[in-house]
Amino acid sequence: LCTGSRREMMDWVHYCNGVLDTTLVRERAANGHPEPMGVRFWGVGNENWGCGGNYDPQDYAKEFRRFATFLRMADPDIELVACGDNKRDWNLRVLETLRNDLRFLDHLSVHQYYQAGPAVGFTSADHLRLMRAGDLIEDVLRFTDEILRFFVAGRRQVGIAFDEWGVWHPEARGHCGYQAPNTLRDAVAAAGVLDVFHRWCRKVSMANLAQIVNVLQTLVETDGAAMWLTPTYHVFWIYRAHRGAAALRTDLEVEEADAGPLGHLDAGGVALASCSASHAEGRLAVSISNRSCSEPLEARVRVRRGRLGDGEVEVVSGDASDAVNSAARPDRVAPGPGRAVLHGEEIVLLLPPCSVATVVAPLAG
User: Fold this and answer.
1) Residues near 214 by Cβ (< 8 Å), separated by ≥ 6?
2) Burial of 226 (0-12, 13-18, 19+ CB in 10 A)
3) What's the pLDDT tens digit per position in 206-220?
4) How far apart, in whole angstroms, are the C-alpha atoms of residue 12 and residue 1?
5) What is the domain extent for residue 213?
6) In the chain, which stretches have pLDDT less than 70?
7) How many CB atoms lie within 10 A of CB 144?
8) Nearest partner of 99 among 25, 150, 48, judged by Cα
9) Which one of 90, 92, 203, 238 is CB 3.0 to 4.6 Å from 314, fit for a cystine?
10) What is the CATH number of the domain that holds 355?
11) Beta bridge mates, 302
12) Which residue in 81, 76, 77, 120 sits closest to 1, CA to CA?
């Protein structure tokens, strides 16, 4: 919205998705894509409450409506994402302005970054505060959903597009390309956020870690010709067991630890474990993270219906909570086999400190 026009955005939609014999479609074919690309999601602006133009929310909503009108003409099947915020006021005012034009709105974008102490050399209190900071994403989802339900009131389905999230350490600044060490602590915190999204899967329409290569809480790092996978990548890898499955409700009984104050928030507790569960095609997948940086965790998982068969366990762990992978040691943190004992309706497994495990087992009955 800051530098482009409605015409330019329409041209991009035509270029990507157009089917008629037009100049832009011929250009796409000449560039190696004769068939439509079928780009489904189109964001109208980005962080317009700040670096995206410092808009007033009402002014942004009017701009969104103008752009959306013409984008729908360019391709009526695309889904449009409006710029939201992790603060209530912006979302309230944007939705209030658009309340009679909700036909243009398919998703509301929300971003949340968090930090607690330095990327490495952090204290045990910093470790727990980072877990708490990730958990606070659930509060953002809760009040965003309340605002959407108030204004949308069942007239259509508007998803929450959590399209930027992750750790943003204080060291990650422009002079270093927004890079910072990606530790095992970061990966365990990411597992907790994935668990939040699983709990809110009916409302969260997309959830995108920022970013993929080299920047912030990245999945892949490079240095010249060298490339390696981060601890966060490996957590995403073992969570693949939940892909395409149905999320199950989990009731977690676990000790809490005092995480201390966090930013403007007073001291608060944080659960020393987090979990997700899903079911698909006769199998159960359970992911559990041990958030303690010093103590192992014996986890007992009980299913309310059915009997479990022998399963497989993958565990992401390392020799320290600030362990990082590098070109010299690309597998310092990596997934490996774990061991679980299954007794009918119960799974028992032991997690080392600062680790994440996924158990996949047949479920009958």
Assistant:
1) 177, 179, 220, 221, 222
2) exposed
3) 999 999 999 999 999
4) 14
5) 106-364
6) 365
7) 24
8) 150
9) 238
10) 2.60.40.1180
11) 346
12) 81
Asked if residue 58 has a cis previous peptide bond (ω within 30° of 0), the answer is: no
Work out whether strand 107-114 and strand 79-83 pair parallel, antiparallel, or are unpaired.
Answer: parallel
47 domain-assigned: no
Report helix, strand or coil for 300. strand
How, if at all, do strands 283-290 and 355-364 pair?
Answer: antiparallel
The amino acid at residue 115 is Q
Is residue 98 classed as helix, strand or coil in its secondary structure? helix
End-to-end Cα distance, the chain: 54
Task: State both tokens at 170.
Answer: 């204080």
pLDDT at 260: 83
Residue 216: exposed, middle, or buried by beta-carbon count in 10 A (0-12, 13-18, 19+)? buried
Residue 235 · residue 331 · CB < 8 Å: no
Instruction: Of 351, 340, 275, give the one whose Cα is nearest residue 309.
Output: 340
Is 253 among the domain residues?
A: yes
Check residue 200 and give its pLDDT. 98
Number of domains in the chain: 1
**pTM beyond 0.90, yes or no:** yes
Peptide bond into 211 cis (omega under 30): yes
Nearest to 316 by CA among 231, 250, 226: 231
pLDDT at 326: 98
Asked whether residue 95 is assigned to any structural domain, the reply reads: no
Q: How far is CA 102 from the centre of its chain?
A: 25
Give the burial class of 102: count Cβ atoms within 10 A of its Cβ; 0-12 exposed, 13-18 middle, 19 or more buried.
Answer: middle
pLDDT of residue 158: 97
The predicted structure's pLDDT at residue 2:
76
- Residue identified by tokens 């409450």 is 49
Per-residue pLDDT tens for 109-125? Answer: 999 999 999 999 999 99
In a domain, 84, yes or no: no
- What is the identity of the amino acid at 278? S
Phi, psi dihedral angles at 136 (to 5 degrees):
-65, -15
Closest CA to 13 of 38, 34, 33, 32: 38
